[in-house]
Design brief:
61% helix, 10-stranded antiparallel sheet, Helix Hairpins, 385 residues, Glucose Permease (Domain IIA), single chain, alpha+beta
Length: 385
């Protein structure tokens, strides 16, 4: 269909304001055109059915809320557990890092001590090497008596044993420190991995908790809307019952509000969605309704009862019918090939308004829904199919 530009939109908004006044003046006269009691009973039955559906939805939302709140409590506990696990893992990682640093310090000190003692050990080894096996024997044989010989043997042996023990002690301590360092590094890597796992778990838990909190808010909003719709529809049904009781067979049918039927409105035709709400094509403004593909000449039906506020050609909409459903709520049916209603006429749900016409070279219906004077996505208001 041809899509409106901003100037046409402004003109259309002004038209809606005038149409609302006109419908208010002509609505009372149009009531008499319909069979009062039969239509009122039909509306009352429809209101009753919708009230029951709203009650069931309220029960479902209440059960869903209890489930989500239970999940929320579980997630809060899980988040607390994950936070504790993360704290423990962080502390363990800090301890492992501290232990590893202490072992590194011990290795460094041992290396420093060895480096300090190394010159003396090297000098002694060089001296012993210079003596050689023969000199070593002459050292022993130079003793004047057995007592001196024994003392020389013991002295050389003690020196050699002392050096050997010192080397072994250094090697053993260094090996022990290296083993401890390996254990500490392995522990550090393990606890760092645990810390990383704990961080991811806490992040996932926090994200799940945030999502469930959003679900709780969404459910609360839906329950508030459900209660609002229920109250509006119950008041309308009470007015219907009062009109049947007080005014007899000639009682005009009251208007059922459209908003309580969100998600349950009939489709105006059986066609598929050709263009969605908000679609932008060719640099034109975003579509304020939807375009439904259908068979040319197929009947277009009212999605809800209302009063015809406009039935004529309108710039950008082709042949157009606007239904006023009260409370600044309108439905628009554009690109009609034939009009079957007139301005001021009272129409019921499912009543033919006209036929599907052409949008360019394609048979299609333009359908728009305005709530509180603002265009909304009709798909969210029509029944699922």
């Amino acid at each position: 269909m041809a899509m409106l530009y901003s100037a046409a939109d402004l003109m259309f908004c002004r038209f809606l304001a005038v149409a609302a006044l006109v419908v208010g003046l002509t609505g009372a006269a149009s009531y008499a055109q319909q069979p009062g009691r039969a239509q009122t009973e039909t509306l009352s039955r429809r209101a009753t059915d919708r009230l029951e559906a709203l009650r069931q939805e309220a029960d479902r939302l209440a059960a869903e809320a209890r489930t989500v709140l239970g999940d929320l409590r579980r997630l809060e506990l899980e988040r607390a557990i994950r936070a504790t696990e993360l704290q423990q893992a962080t502390q363990a990682a800090q301890h492992a890092t501290t232990d590893l640093a202490a072992i590194d310090a011990q290795v460094s000190n041992l290396s420093a001590d060895t480096a300090a003692a190394l010159p003396d050990l090297q000098a002694r080894l060089v001296t012993l090497y210079k003596l050689g096996r023969g000199q070593y024997a002459r050292l022993l044989l130079s003793a004047s008596d057995l007592r001196q010989f024994g003392q020389a043997v013991r002295l050389v042996s003690a020196l050699a044993e002392q050096d050997r023990v010192r080397v072994q002690q250094y090697q053993a301590r260094l090996a022990a420190l290296q083993a401890a360092r390996d254990v500490a590094r392995e522990r550090q890597a393990r606890v760092q991995q645990l810390q990383s796992v704990a961080e991811r778990a806490q992040s996932a838990s926090a994200a799940a908790l945030t999502a469930h909190e959003a679900m709780v808010r969404e459910i609360d909003t839906r329950r508030d809307l459900n209660a609002q719709y229920y109250g509006e529809l119950l008041a309308a049904q009470e007015r219907l019952q009062a009109s049947l009781t007080d005014r007899g067979d000639s009682a005009p049918a009251s208007v059922l509000p459209l908003t309580p039927f969100k998600g349950d409105l009939d489709w105006p035709i059986a066609g598929t969605v050709r263009q969605r709400f908000g679609a932008v094509m060719g640099g034109r403004p975003a579509l304020r309704g939807i375009e439904l593909a259908g068979a040319q000449g197929a009947a277009v039906q009212a999605v809800h009862e209302g009063t015809v506020a406009f039935a004529d050609a309108f710039t950008g909409y082709g042949q157009l019918v606007i239904l006023d459903h009260g409370n600044q709520t309108f439905t628009l049916y554009g690109n009609l090939g034939e009009l079957q209603v007139t301005k001021g006429e009272r129409v019921g749900r499912g009543q033919p308004l006209g036929t599907v016409g052409l949008s360019g070279d394609t048979a299609a219906l333009y359908f728009e829904l305005r709530v509180d004077g603002r265009a909304v996505d009709p798909i969210q208001w029509l029944a699922k199919r």
